[in-house]
Specification:
The chain contains six helices and 34 strands. The protein has about 700 residues and is mainly beta. The longest helix has 8 residues. The relative contact order is 0.07.
């Protein structure tokens, strides 16, 4: 099912030039094999960057980046099929046929995951080109004009084929082929003036300009079924006699911005800044396409004051900072403010008929989402830079959140994009960099980072928004997890009380929050927070006579995860594979003090509601990276005309310490912003060993 995958990548760079012309070029190739059987991604990329002083007053910069990739992906549900496969069945029987879970009497029938990986084709091919030209005109010694133009083109093709031999994939369709093609094009033009002048103890830098952006996407897709032979796969869809899918799409969007930025510096002690942006996007309603986003900043380098001289023996640099500004968000997809239709295929009589239905209601007043943030910080440097410390406190209020709101069915529409409410985020970010030991041959440095964030939903117009494993409600954190509270299981001496809830001994016992004698939605409660209380990482680097050893530790603390994988597998133990502790801890007349219900047949029914039992601690300590590198001395390399040579060995995801019962606690299966902390049969995280060779001529 999985394997030890071997991957390799190679990069070759060239650089050179003269006083007026410089050039850098690179060609790279990657072949990454997936840990799932038959999966891979291969990528070839090349770029060239040329800078040319055509005149004393004109500099031209030109860049070109081209590449392509080819990947074979696994089926989205393959992780689930793998975990739920019955371990006592062989992958293949002696006659070469693949086993299926349904071969065991009473078990759920799904296709063998090894066979799916080997026989199902799902190929992605991608080609891209990015070109960028920048011209800089030096008008005076303190004024210059910069103009740039870039264009990006991409072509993507996904080809998939489910052969007629795969149960649940192509058997009933007698082979199923699909192709999806997407072409993208975008361009950006930016023009701005830069004023930069110093006099006496003053420096003033002013930038003012405008930018324009355009993007379009064209899509087409085709599907066919009922092939007389699997030989053709997706390469000759005309052989399939049933057209299962046909469609096309076109979208575009435009942006326009006007901006100005001012930075003033007096004697490298007092620094003031201000910026103003007017951004427009075609994605918003006609009444609110433009948004205004100002920001202001101030800093005081205390260490440059005369009264600080005596303190410089210890603190060689100290700066305090304060800023306040507004930024906008327009990431909602194209045409989100417009009324939209969708086409569907539905049975009508004996035939499938195409219909067009209302999908999204127009919102001409849809406007930019805005985040206003106050930031206060301090930078400190001790003992000639041997200790550097930075700390920032931020307080951010996001208003007019862009959210796709579900509408009642009697509206005639499914949903509408709207601006909804207000969310607060506030937190602390700190970093510490130290040179612990420094001598002629030995250096030990440490880099430490700490972050914490607290969110709160302040206003969503009295709505309650349901999501996987939780909900969004005023007065609660954004990533609050929500579900039933599992008290345990009903015991034999509670049979009469259990019967009031249509339960029997061995069934799950939930908290009847509202005391109405039945399990309903009002019994649910907040059971955790998907966001951690804090995150830290620490990197230590040791260097000695050409050897460099480093390790990077990551610590996440205080979050909860909904292990929906465990929840489902715990309920399906008699007809699917399960966690090893489920049968051991299941309720029996001799083992009644347990959270795990009695084992049951499919016809007995089971409950898959999110509850406190599936809400697990997500804290972990991970060794993200550990590596050793050796740099050969120039004296050893000079005879071979080699400028530098290094050899290295790295291990990523070297170890993990956690109480989480799933495969990895650093996971979210759904929206990482609104649905953080839900694990639903997640693709496993690999441990990667890598050898590196670097040569510079």
């Amino acid at each position: 099912m999985t394997r030890t995958a071997f991957s390799h990548q190679h990069s070759l760079s060239f650089s050179g030039g003269s006083d007026k012309l410089t050039a850098v070029a690179n060609v790279s190739y990657k072949d990454n094999q997936g840990i799932m059987l038959e999966t891979y991604k291969r990528q070839l990329n090349a770029f060239i960057n040329v800078g040319w002083d055509l005149k004393e007053w004109f500099h031209l910069q030109a860049m070109l980046n081209v590449g392509s990739s080819n990947a074979r992906n696994s089926e989205n549900a393959i992780s689930r099929y793998t975990l739920e496969a019955l371990p006592f069945l062989p992958v293949q029987y002696e006659d070469g046929t693949y086993s299926r879970k349904g071969d065991y009497p009473g078990a759920e029938d799904t296709e063998n995951p090894v066979r799916i990986l080997k026989e199902r084709k799902n190929i992605d091919k991608n080609q891209y080109t990015l070109a960028n030209v920048i011209g800089t005109f030096k008008i005076t010694s303190w004024l210059k004009l910069t103009t740039s133009f870039s264009r990006q083109d991409g072509s993507y093709i996904n080809s998939s084929y489910n052969p007629s031999t795969l149960f649940g994939y192509g058997d009933t369709q007698k082979g199923k082929a699909e192709k999806a093609h997407r072409n993208t094009m975008s361009w950006t033009n930016e023009d701005y003036l830069t004023f930069d002048k110093s006099w006496n103890k003053h420096n003033l830098n002013v930038v003012a300009g405008a930018s324009w952006y355009y993007s379009k996407t064209e899509k087409s897709e085709l599907g066919a079924e009922n092939f007389f032979d699997d030989y053709f796969e997706y390469n000759n869809m005309g052989v399939g006699t049933v057209r299962s899918k046909v469609g096309s799409d076109y979208t575009d969007n435009k942006m326009n911005s006007y901006y100005a930025r001012i930075n003033y510096n007096f004697d490298n002690r007092y620094l003031l800044g201000a910026s103003f942006r007017e951004d427009g996007s075609s994605r918003f309603g006609l009444n609110n396409q433009y948004g205004f986003f100002p920001s202001f900043s101030a800093a005081w380098r205390v260490s440059n004051e005369n009264f600080f001289e005596n303190a410089k023996k210890v603190i060689d640099d100290m700066k305090v900072r304060l800023s306040y500004g507004t930024v906008g968000n327009a990431e909602i997809g194209d045409y989100a403010s417009m009324a939209r239709y969708e086409n569907k295929r539905l049975p009508f009589g004996k035939d499938m008929t195409t219909i067009v239905t209302l999908k999204s209601m127009a919102n001409p007043d849809l406007r930019w989402e805005k985040s206003r943030q106050l930031d206060a910080g301090i930078d400190l440097s001790f003992f000639n830079g041997r200790i550097e410390f930075m700390a920032d406190y931020y307080h951010k209020i996001t208003t007019d959140l862009l959210y796709e709101l579900q509408l009642p069915s009697n509206s005639g529409y499914e949903k509408t994009m709207t601006n909804l409410g207000k969310i607060r985020n506030q937190g602390l970010e700190m970093s510490l960099n130290t040179r612990n030991i420094q001598s002629r041959d030995f250096l030990w440095t440490t880099s430490w980072n700490y972050t914490m964030n607290r969110s709160m939903v302040l206003d969503i117009n009295d709505n309650i928004i349901g999501k996987w494993g939780g909900r969004i409600e005023e007065g609660h954190p954004l990533n609050a997890l929500y579900g039933y509270v599992r008290l345990g299981t009903w015991g034999t001496d509670e049979a009469e009380e259990a019967a009031k809830y249509n339960k029997k001994p061995g069934d799950i016992k939930y908290w009847d929050k509202n005391g109405n004698g039945m399990k309903d939605g009002e019994d649910q409660d907040y059971i955790g927070n998907g966001a951690p209380k804090f995150e830290m990482n620490m990197t230590n680097t040791f260097s000695w006579k050409g050897f460099t050893f480093m390790f990077d530790l990551q610590w996440v603390y205080g979050n909860k995860l909904i292990n929906f994988t465990r929840q489902l597998m715990g309920n399906r133990v008699t007809f699917s594979n399960a966690y090893a502790d489920i049968p051991v801890n299941a309720w029996t007349p001799e083992n009644q003090n347990t959270m795990v219900p009695s084992l049951r047949l499919p016809g007995d029914g089971y409950e898959n509601d999110v509850d406190s039992w599936s809400c697990e601690p997500g804290s972990f300590l991970r060794l993200r990276n550990i590596g050793l590198k050796y740099d050969f001395s120039s004296r050893m390399l000079s005879a071979a005309h080699i400028k530098s040579l290094s050899l290295g060995f790295n291990v990523e995801n070297a170890f993990l310490i956690t109480n989480y019962s799933g495969s990895d606690p650093e996971v979210t299966s759904y929206d990482a912003v609104f649905e953080q902390g839900v694990d639903f049969y997640t693709y496993p995280k690999p441990r990667t060993y890598s050898f590196t060779l670097g040569v510079n001529f």
